Amino acid sequence: MAAATMGAVRVLCGAEKERVVGAHKAPGACPRCGGAVVAVDVESERRVLGLPLCLKSKRKYSCTRCLRRLVTLCG
User: Fold this and answer.
1) b vs e for 3-40, b when ≥16 Cβ sit within 10 Å of the residue's Cβ?
2) For residue 71, how many other CB atoms are within 10 A of its CB?
3) What is the pTM of this model?
4) Are the C-beta atoms of residues 43 and 56 closer than 8 Å to each other?
5) Using one digit for the tens of pLDDT, what is the confidence trace for 2-32?
6) pLDDT tens, 47-65?
7) Residue 73: exposed, middle, or buried by beta-carbon count in 10 A (0-12, 13-18, 19+)?
8) How far apart are CA 2 and CA 64, in angstroms?
9) Domain locations in the chain?
10) Residue 67: helix, strand or coil by DSSP?
11) The 3-state secondary structure of 5-66, one letter per residue
């Protein structure tokens, strides 16, 4: 019963779906292990009541050796 309720809440409030658009090698090395860095382009789509609300594109960086997610520092 609780799982069905959570599913209904996700549909009404707007669940977010992500899909990978592309991946490529990024410059630099992982500060933890020195492994290669990969950049993954991800599109996320938020829907409310089945209707698309917004589409966002993000670029996520991670290490290929230790699988650690890396964050860029701006400014």
Assistant:
1) eeeeeeeeeeebeeeeeeeeeeebeeebeeeeeebebe
2) 7
3) 0.66
4) yes
5) 666 665 655 556 667 889 999 999 998 999 9
6) 777 777 888 899 999 999 9
7) exposed
8) 38
9) 18-69
10) coil
11) HHHHHHHHHCCEEEEEEEEEEEEEECCCCCCEEEEEEEEEEEEECCEEEEEEEEEEEEECCC
6 Cβ neighbours under 8 A, 6+ residues apart: none
Q: Do residues 30 and 65 touch, judged by C-beta distance below 8 A?
A: yes
Average of pLDDT values for 30-42? Answer: 93
List the 69-70 sheet strands across, edge first: 16-29, 36-48, 51-63, 69-70
